[in-house]
Specification:
The protein has a single domain, classed as Alpha-Beta Barrel (TIM Barrel), CATH 3.20.20.140. It contains 10 helices and 13 strands. The strands form 4 sheets. A 6-stranded parallel beta sheet has the order 8-9-10-11-12-13. α4 packs across α5 and α5 crosses α6. This is Phosphotriesterase-related protein. Belongs to the metallo-dependent hydrolases superfamily. Phosphotriesterase family.
């Protein structure tokens, strides 16, 4: 039986058996991806109150227990803000370290080899993020194009090595859903077991065969941009999800909304962090997904991913 370590949250260790409500497996609460004049791609100080209020409302209405926050190095990470939001909302938050895909790599990536990059991640994991003492519980969202660039391959390899050394899970950014099998091959080739890996944004990829391939290999498959209709309709996302469930891979799926712009916040007129609970899951239930399966998708699976537990243990 796997030894399950407590989940590292921004306010301290949390025993997995204390998480009795749903988990949002890929979100952003503090973020800055502004470039090329795109001022929407930010979740900053002025948005903190609205974010905390939204999470508190989801805790009260839907039992939201945990948010996995995947903002990493070069993405405007703010661990101190995450701790404040978590305390205000009374919702546990897991912070991350890693590097996003190459257009957002900070200068430190270009100057470092795999060993140096691995050392940077391990320093974050052991010493805490950005001088706050907040320790990450995840390496994410480690980015790559459909064909990873040379820099992305170095980052992915370093991330796998650090995750293996620290016994942490790793979640990827597969740009527009593409390149997942290549990411999985690279990460497992660097020594990280497939069950510690989540391949991101697969709900943007209309390719059920790839979803089955990733799940059959033992990786988690993230349907994590739910509600982002300009990228993909939720109707198609649901069709892809049901196909993966029907193929027998319900224990490999993670769900979330990936809120990454302040215009997505409910208080700013967007669909918000709760779109999964308010809209998508009711449609899934209407299509035959029962309450036990919803609990598997939204609570037990993310806990298994975060802790490395087996299906028998959760």
């Amino acid at each position: 039986m796997t030894v399950m370590h407590p989940i590292r949250t921004v306010t301290g260790p949390l025993a997995a058996d204390r998480v009795d409500g749903p988990v949002l497996a890929h979100e952003h609460l503090a973020l800055d991806l502004r470039r090329d004049g795109d001022d929407q791609a930010v979740l900053a100080e002025g948005h903190r109150t609205a974010i905390a209020a939204e999470l508190a409302g989801l805790r009260a209405e839907h039992g939201l227990s945990l948010v996995v926050e995947q903002t990493c190095r070069g993405m405007g990470r703010d661990a101190a803000a995450l701790a404040r939001i978590s305390r205000q909302a009374q919702v546990a938050v897991v912070a991350s370290t890693g590097w996003y895909y190459e257009p957002f790599h900070p200068d430190e990536v270009a100057a470092a080899d795999v060993d140096a990059l691995t050392g940077m991640l391990l320093a974050d994991i052991e010493d805490g993020l950005d001088g706050t003492g907040v320790r990450p519980g995840l390496i994410a969202e480690v980015g790559g194009h459909a064909e990873p660039t040379r820099a992305e391959r170095r980052v992915l390899t370093a991330a796998a090595r650090a995750a293996t050394a620290a016994d942490l899970p790793l979640a990827t950014h597969a740009h527009l859903g593409r390149g997942g099998p290549a990411q999985l091959e690279l990460l497992t080739g660097a020594g990280l077991p497939a069950h510690r890996i989540c391949i991101g944004h697969q709900d943007l990829l209309d390719d059920p065969a790839t979803h089955r391939e990733l799940a059959a290999a033992g990786a988690y498959v993230a349907f994590d941009t739910i509600g982002k209709e300009p990228y993909q309709s939720d109707e198609r996302r649901l069709r892809l999800l049901l196909a993966l469930l029907d193929a027998g891979h319900a224990d490999r799926v993670l769900l979330s909304c990936d809120i990454s712009r302040h215009s997505y916040l409910r208080g700013h007129g967007g669909h918000g962090y709760g779109h999964l609970f308010r809209s998508f899951l009711p449609r899934a239930r209407a299509a035959g997904v029962d309450d036990d399966l919803v609990d598997l998708l939204t609570r037990r699976n993310p806990l298994r991913f975060l802790t490395g537990a087996t299906t028998e243990e959760f």
